[in-house]
Structures are given as C-alpha cells and as structure tokens.
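=== RUN LOG ===
request id: a7f3
mode: sequence -> structure
chains: 1
length: 162
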Amino acid sequence: MVTETSRLSTAQWVLERQLAWITLADAKVGAVVTINLAMLGGLGAAFAANPVRSQWSMLLSTIAAVLLVASLVCAACTIKPRLDGPPQSLLFFGRVAEYTNSFDYVLRFKEATPDGLLEDWTQQIHRNAQIAFKKHHWALKAMMWSFIAAVFWVLAIGSFVK
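=== RESULT ===
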C-alpha cells in the first residue's frame, strides 16, 4: 500500500530529477556560448589581420557571424529565467518570497496537509517539466546553429589564409 509519506518522497525525487534536467540544459548552453564567443573572436582577428578581403571571405564571414549570433540568441532564450510558478505554492521560490515575513510562511507550512503538499509538489514538478522542455528546446537550437556556423567559420578562416 502506498502511504502519504512514500508519495511525498517519490514526488521529491521526481522534482529533483526535473531540476537536474534544467541544470543540464544550462550547462550545455554554457559550452555553446564559450565556443561561439571564441569563434567570433577568431573570426574578428582573422578579419582584422587581412585588410584585403575577397567577396567570398566577406560572404563566408558574414554567414558565420550571423549564424553564431543566432546561436547566442537561442542560448540567451535557454538561460532566460522563468519566474512564473504554481499559485499559492509553498515550494516555488517566487511564491515563498511573496510572504512579507518568514513567520507567515512557517505558519502556512505547518498547517499544510500531506495531500496539500503533494498537490503543491506535483504542480511544481509539472511546471519544472515545462521549463526543462523549453530550455532543452532552445539549447538544441543553439547547438544546431553553432554546428552549422562552424562549417562557414572554417571556410571563412580558410579564405583568409594565403
């Protein structure tokens, strides 16, 4: 038989998994941003070091830069904070912060029933799943644009080599 305590424990485990998926998306994007900025810096250095540029090098550099910027925009969408959470939540930081003092929050928490906590936690699990989905969606787009940009970046850098 499933007890209230085991349901709460399971909900806590699922919530922790959701938070881990959110963190994973943010970590992926950190690597993408670092690589993109390095590629933009390298492209800028190659561009500045070659005062005579062909139309091909201009075109390839422009395409690479635009794609890298598109990737950075997607990365920004990934890390954009999502501040809306379940209403009346005892778990969501935005709702907890709305209490004017900690005593009101503590009192409400003490009065919460196991069913009320389970409902609160499962609503937060659902919201975090939505957030994780959006973050991974944008992270995938950031990686995709970065990989496509890399092809044009290599060609652009190669066009500057004499």
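=== NOTES ===
DSSP finds five helices and no strands in the chain.
The mean pLDDT is 92.
=== END ===
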